[in-house]
Amino acid sequence: xxxxxxxxxxxxxxxxxxxxxxxxxxxxxxxxxxxxxxxxxxxxxxxxxxxxxxxxxxxxxxxxxxxxxxxxxxxxxxxxxxxxxxxxxxxxxxxxxxxxxxxxxxxxxxxxxxxxxxxxxxxxxxxxxxxxxxxxxxxxxxxxxxxxxxxxxxxxxxxxxxxxxxxxxxxxxxxxxxxxxxxxxxxxxxxxxxxxxxxxxxxxxxxxxxxxxxxxxxxxxxxxxxxxxxxxxxxxxxxxxxxxxxxxxxxxxxxxxxxxxxxxxxxxxxxxxxxxxxxxxxx
Length: 283
Prior knowledge:
A hairpin with a 5-residue loop joins strand 1 (11-13) and strand 2. The longest helix has 20 residues, at 146-165. The strands form three sheets. The chain has a six-stranded mixed sheet, sandwiched between helices. The protein has a four-stranded antiparallel sheet with strand order 4-3-6-7, covered by helices on one side. A two-stranded antiparallel ribbon has the order 1-2. The protein has ten helices and twelve strands. By secondary structure, the protein is α/β, with parallel strands linked by helices.
């Protein structure tokens, strides 16, 4: 089943040579990197990565296997600390911060391999993601005071609202590990959204999905951006999905950006054709 392409907003260049949608130009980018790089021993995994993501942009990070895409996500979420360069989330430098701290700054992610609490219920998985927004203290949690009960009520309501957004509220008491594969993927996205991010990173969200599930995923990504007014950045090998939904695309090869542009520009770029598709332009 083909994914239908919807017209994207015009992309414009910033002084840093990064590109963002025209509608985001008067706003601060939700994510910026400047000359970002990381070395593992003598190996440079990511080098001189400079990009910006507008606060309501859907963008793609693509490239061949081993290009460094997941390493970039690990840098952005402080799983790895960069060897050089700067990462700004909503203008705040993430240098030296933990993954939990950068999550509170406004970045959340899903993983290539699903990471749910499989033995917990669907709704409890979502409640875990609400830790950035729900506040209580240790004493009230032990005594189950009125404040604690009220917090639990608010968390339950918010978790159900998020599950309903994906048509999953009827599954709230189901054990997460018992869900079908596609539903587990959706639940991981719901849990990430529960942290109230400004940008959501999706690492191969369509992996293992059939064509109809992929179409549904594409529509859900658009709904997430439009409803929550946040940015979405995805790593994906399904080029039909990437070209059908992303406004801006960065192409990585050997840890470096070799092209940035709109889907049409990326499809016509000779460097991308050679590096990503494995054939030389004109052949």
